[in-house]
Amino acid sequence: MSELKITSTIATNQSISVPLLGLGVWKSRPKECYEAVKVALESGYRHIDTAAIYGNEADVGKAIGDSGIPRSEIFLVTKLWNADQGFDEAQKAIDVSLNKLGTDYVDMYLIHFPVSGKRKDSWKALEKIQKEGKAKSIGVSNFMIPHLEELLQDSQIVPAMNQVEYHPFLQDLPLKEYCEKNGILLEAYSPLAHGQKLEDERVTRLAKNYNKTNAQILIRWSLQSGNVVIPKSKNPNRIKENADVYDFSLTPEDMKEINHWNENFRTCWDPTTVV
């Protein structure tokens, strides 16, 4: 993976490729979200990840429109929120999102969370949404192995992606192996563990060795692990810093060390409790 660059992509099982590095905009308020997306696109990002519940789809869409970059060159992701799950509800929700984003399609539409009793109907709606061209690809978020097994038993389309919290301190290897076995990309959200492990002395030691920041070490590990990664930031300097990870690579020895840092340290919601 030493030849990685900001334009690197990875193929999905649905005839579309995903840029490995993206910008997450969770908790970015509208105006700051617009500026964050603008800076990201100017810095070379071509993957923007938002969601209906974030409340900033309109600003993401405006920033993309104002960027001057052809829409076809930007990989745009949004998500179906829990309150909108269900077959009919999901079909209405995508239209609301597309209207706010100012586009007639998204590149990836995800079920945001495996809501009990509704996720199967939601997936059937996403299959229809994709066939109608409103989403070029469809996937899920926060799905654990039991949720994926249930979905695959009664679906026409295998999810292109599963977006989950994933970082050196939360490495769910059985889930990653299950996704790989079934051709599902794993996308790492919260790759910096919400900053809660950023000052870990092991990360600091490696950062000094490579003359990089602690955040850059964690992002590079995700990329070299073959994960799609979407670090979140609204700070222009950090957005640029998070993309400055292509002039070095972690050695096999350092990758192996980081691979043993797992603590099952979860910073977001816990989908393992959802039946």
UniProtKB/TrEMBL annotation:
GO molecular function: oxidoreductase activity, acting on the CH-OH group of donors, NAD or NADP as acceptor
Domain NADP-dependent oxidoreductase: 22-261
Active-site residues annotated for this sequence: Y54
Alphabetized UniProt keyword annotations: NADP, Oxidoreductase
SUPFAM superfamilies in the cross-refs: NAD(P)-linked oxidoreductase
Pfam families linked to this entry: Aldo_ket_red
Gene3D superfamilies, per the entry: NADP-dependent oxidoreductase domain
InterPro entries for this protein: AKR, Aldo/ket_reductase_CS, NAD(P)_OxRdtase_dom_sf, NADP_OxRdtase_dom
Superkingdom of this protein's organism: Bacteria
Family per record: Belongs to the aldo/keto reductase family.
Name this protein carries in UniProt: Aldo/keto reductase
Species of origin: Leptospira ellinghausenii
Lineage: Bacteria, Pseudomonadati, Spirochaetota, Spirochaetia, Leptospirales
